[in-house]
Amino acid sequence: MCKSSIHSFLQALPKVEHHMHIEGALSPSLIFKLAAKNGIELPKDDSAFSSVESLVERYKHFTSLDDFLHYYYIGMSVLLSAGDFEALAWDYFQHAAADGVVHAELFYDPQAHTSRGVSYSTIVSGISAARKRAESEFGITTELICCFLRHLPVSDSLMAFDSSEIQASFKDGSVIGIGLDSTELDKPPHLWKELYAKAATQELNLTAHAGEEGPAEYITDALASLHISRIDHGVHLIDDPELMASVAKEGIMLTVCPISNVVLKCFPSIKDVPIRKFLDAGVRFSINSDDPAYFGGYILDNYCAVDDAFQLSAEEWKSVCRAAIEGSWCSEERKAELLERLHSVMEHWRSKVA
Length: 354
Ligand code: HPA
Ligand SMILES: [Zn+2]
Description:
By secondary structure, the protein is an alpha/beta fold. The protein has one domain: Alpha-Beta Barrel (TIM Barrel), CATH 3.20.20.140.
């Protein structure tokens, strides 16, 4: 962890989170609690589910994205009622508030719940109750991004997208964009071209996971076929200097998740995550937690890990935070407030170190 004065500076920075799966905030203790409450039997043939401690231990040994996703989908099987989703989201917002998050754009995976018989309104109403409370108690503003699952047939995504409940949540503004997540290898982005074309006609914001485990070509493909304005992860951009220069020039933001990348074996250590290379190449990025309850770190842990590995200057941290605010999908008024807040934190920091 970082030294205490740097830590307090990083804590105070007004953080925006763009890459945070709400189901990835489901802690082992909440999994066991909700499983007991809801009478859900966790797998008996996997000793990882013997106790909270054994599950925490298993999470330290993920071998790949798909190895993690196996546990991610079992974990979320305990979520049944709106109250369960509210408890999950509230757990996240308490961490977010402590870490200095001021605005969060949260992913959720409706297909993973509706396929288990949980209604869409149960998911969204539970998360919304926690969102309202986070805004009134912590001043954290939030948006929702509906993610579609790549391990399922494309036709499933199209059916979900067209469902009256999901359409209603786009129309009433409670959900502002779509994303694409889950298994990446052998699932090239262009397969979801029709889904993204439909979403574009509804003026939804568009993002997709690309170049996490998959190659840089998937980033090219996602930009060309899906017309996304952000790239989730996108770290394999580093393998294609020409593409990197074009992403920098276009100002397309990557939502980078350093601890996730190390835990899921995309890179051997945080030092290998191309943070410094992106800074040098002028690639915009935000720093995010992805699935903090599975990866052992919330957003501030990610900021601290990056600082430990790369020793960013205060000005570099300011530019990371500014890019994150500017790359958000909130109102221009909210962005202006957040930029003002960033300015105040920087002034305060400079007066302390002067
Ligand atoms: O990092 C991720 N990648 C793909 N799908 C996911 N679903 C949750 N987290 C992830
Ligand atoms: Zn993700």
